[in-house]
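Justification of computing resources. Each target in the renewal requires a structure prediction run like the one illustrated here; the chain below, 94 residues long, is used simply to show the kind of job we budget for.
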Amino acid sequence: MKELSKKVLWTLVLIALIAFTLYAMVGSNDSFTFEGFVNYVKNVSPGWIIGAILCMCGFFVFEDNYRIKVILRNIKKIYHLRDIYKMFSINPLL
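Resulting structure tokens:
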């Protein structure tokens, strides 16, 4: 139950961060409006959206496969989880 409440809390924090980011983007630029953004999204070609989603998923799959390959190749050299973090500290997605 405690783990579920932490997940819900962090989900709400993430949603709030997304909302504040969008508010800051819209508020700082006079030519960028929410209505204009919705209109832009409605007019986007579905092929490009599907292609972008596939590329995003491919990025995650191939990057994870690379990480697994590097970890398995260097498993005798890695003594700590901290070493794994240092190995991939360039990319914050780990």
